[in-house]
Amino acid sequence: MRIYCLLLTACCSLCLSCGQVGEPLPPLLKIPARVEGFQAQQFEDKALLRWSPVRLTTEGAALQDLDRMVIYAVEVARDTPPAAPEALAPYFKVVAEAGPDDAEAEVAVSDRYGQRTAFAVQAVTEKGKFSPWSALQVLELTEPPAAPTNLRAEARESGVALVWSETDRATDYTVERAVEEGAFAEVGQSGEAQLLDESARFDVAYRYRVRGRADAATGSVPGPPSLVVSITPQDVFPPAAPQGVRVIRTPQSVELSWSASPERDLAGYRVERGGMSLQEELLTAPAFSDADAPGGKLEYRIFAVDQEGNTSDAAVVAVE
């Protein structure tokens, strides 16, 4: 009997516990979170817009039904900071849309040159729920420079020299280079219509192009690129003639020495007496001992030779 009562009491307690219900939870609104990381830049005749993908709702839950991204633009006054995007909402115009997984868009702006334009973006779900406004991005839209013309490339001992014709509205230039069939990347900037690419190496195929850039209050604006020029620079540049040659005649030999040549691709030196080479292989040190030197007046000619076989002018020295 006692065991039966204990079991009955436990069952009653369990039933009472299960019957307690908390406050009901409100339904999730499923509104997309605010678009973060919004950036804008003018490139040629387009505004390039980028943002971080929207993955959550305003309540921190996973966003399941994102439908599209909507990009807006409106002209704003130059003399005052733009209003908050909420205040500009009645004046915004849709200028582009992007897919739910996209994180960038392009907007043509050639009809807005000279305008100060604010851009914003919202995420929209399949049920038409809009995220809060992103931060504003403001651009002073500027007509970009025309493509530079007459680009030429010439191999130099110190790199590849590039020259081109100046173009209207360009305040400076960006030079882009591709190695072999690779993608173009910026290799230098110049305030003049020329640049020396000192990072170029011999026997490597390069392609070059140049863009002009115009100044704007919200950042420089690159214009379209020039036509591409290709070059594979070859080393046809001889070293400088050896310098600082010194000569001493001893009873046993004629001793020659000179300053080391500074060229990075130096292979060695060749010494001639009377037009005849005095060694079978190139000298690696800037010195030579002529143990077979005959008596009388002699003339020596010393050459520097690089790894491509290019030979310098002769350094000439005479000894009595």
Can you summarize this structure?
This protein is mostly beta strands. The protein is built from two helices and 22 strands. The protein folds into three domains: 39-140, Immunoglobulin-like (Sandwich), CATH 2.60.40; 149-231, Immunoglobulins (Immunoglobulin-like), CATH 2.60.40.10; 246-319, Immunoglobulin-like, CATH 2.60.40.
Describe the structure.
It is a single chain. By secondary structure, this protein is mostly beta strands. The protein folds into three domains: 39-140, Immunoglobulins (Immunoglobulin-like, Sandwich), CATH 2.60.40.10; 149-231, Immunoglobulins (Immunoglobulin-like); 246-319, Sandwich (Immunoglobulin-like). The protein has two helices and 22 strands. It has helices spanning 2-18, 85-88, and strands at 39-43, 46-50, 66-75, 93-98, 104-108, 116-125, 137-140, 149-156, 159-165, 172-179, 185-190, 194-197, 206-214, 221-225, 229-231, 246-249, 254-257, 266-273, 276-277, 287-290, 298-306, 315-319. Strands 10, 11, 13, 14 and 15 form a five-stranded antiparallel sheet that branches. The N and C termini lie far apart (138 Å). Residues 1-19 have low confidence and may be disordered.
